[in-house]
Amino acid sequence: MKNKNLLFILTGFTVAGLLILLQVLFIVREGDAAVVTTFGKPTRDLTEAGPYFRWPWPIQRVYRFDQRTQCFEGPYEQILTRDGKNLLISLYVGWRIMEPTPFLERVGSMEQAERNLEGLLRNYTSATLGQHPFSALVNVHAEALRFLSIEEEIKQAVQNEAETRYGIHVEYLGIRRIGLPESITTRVFERMRAERTELSERYASEGESEALRIRAEADSEREQTLARADAEAKRIRAEGEAMAAEAYRIFAEDPKLAVFLRKLDVMQDVLTNRTTLILGTDSAPFDLLQGPLDLEP
After folding, report:
1. Taking Cα atoms as reference points, which of 50, 55, 61 lies closest to residue 28?
2. 279 pLDDT exceeds 80?
3. Tally of domains in the chain
4. Cβ(183)–Cβ(86) under 8 Å?
5. How much is the pLDDT for 115?
6. 34 and 127 part of one domain
7. How confident is the model at residue 238 (pLDDT cuts 50, 70, 90)?
8. Whether pLDDT at 266 is above 80
9. Residue 129 belongs to domain with CATH number
10. Which of 128, 146, 163, 201 could form a disulfide with 136 if both were Cys (CB 3.0 to 4.6 A apart)?
């Protein structure tokens, strides 16, 4: 009986000890941050993982927060650009708790932090895009877009105020989606179509100009080639006429030689095709077959 009572007493003390230990011992997990308050006032920031001691409630209380980077996507907001164009835009933000105590005092929860970030995004997106034209975000020419610089401007503005007011650090920020109100979508498409038509007409004009240039160069080269050929033909003709004149002069001096050479030409033409002829040798030019002619003048 005494042994049973002793066992009950030991068990009771063990349970009581565990309960007391649970009241004074707590663990901060990896990736978490904790704030210990004493009578409601923050007294300790804990960002390293491990076990810690505290006074039991209601003296001290522990608030835990996820200190890992959180991703938040804002809703569509209608923004007015510098040139008076309406634009629908949505941004995404990566943020984390940088200072647990200011975060607890000024924000209190992760849900409230996202609501605060949504307000900052709305304000600074409107202020930043109000300094840029519509063409910096919607343009057919990639070199005219200013996405990166606009994102960086919004990030710096949001980051500065988030750190100062809420103890939140903005890791990254970017434009998630861009849309156009239905009232201006048709006008934007018409403008894009007009720009494409103008570009097409310009290319067609440039192509026609290039074709005319190539055609003119070809015509000029053809005229030059024909002129050179005509000059060469005239030169050859002149040389031939000079040689013919020289031959005529020689034939004029020796008519018998001229007749003889002419008969040879005729015989060559007649006999080239192996033609069989039956003619008398007294007929020209076959009289040459009778024997050598007297070519003396």
Report:
1. 50
2. no
3. 4
4. yes
5. 92
6. no
7. confident
8. no
9. 3.30.479.30
10. 146
Nearest alpha-carbon partner for 145 in 180, 175, 109: 175
CB atoms within 10 A of CB 269: 11
Domain ranges, residue 227: 223-253
Predicted pLDDT at 246: 72
Q: Is 174 helix (H, G, I), strand (E, B) or coil?
A: strand
- Count Cβ neighbours within 10 Å for each residue of 236-259 and write b for 16 or more, e otherwise: eeeeeeeeeeeeeeeeeeeeeeee
pLDDT at 213 over 70: yes
Question: Which residue from 50, 45, 52 is spatially nearest to 25, judged by alpha carbons?
Answer: 52
Is the pLDDT reported for residue 151 higher than 90? yes
In a domain, 215, yes or no: no
What is the Cα–Cα distance from 170 to 259, expressed in whole angstroms? 115
β-bridge partners, 85: none
| Residues 141 and 167 grouped into a single domain | yes
Contact of 151 with 133, CB cutoff 8 Å: no
Both 120 and 41 in a single domain? no
| Residue whose C-alpha is closest to residue 41's, from 105, 132, 84, 130 | 105
Place of tokens 């003296």: 59
Share of the chain above pLDDT 90, in %: 24
| Cα 203 from Cα 211, distance rounded (Å) | 12
Residues 242, 265 within the same domain: no
One DSSP character per residue, 11-32 reads HHHHHHHHHHHHHHEEEEPTTE
More reliable by pLDDT, 258 or 190: 190
Residue 97 · residue 167 · CB < 8 Å:
yes
Residue 128 has pLDDT above 90, yes or no: yes
Number of neighbouring beta carbons within 10 Å of residue 221: 10
Q: Angle at which helices 110-129 and 147-166 pack, to 10 degrees?
A: 140
Contact 135, 144 (CB under 8 A): yes
User: Minimal CA–CA distance to 177: which of 256, 275, 88?
Assistant: 88
pLDDT exceeds 70 at position 277:
no
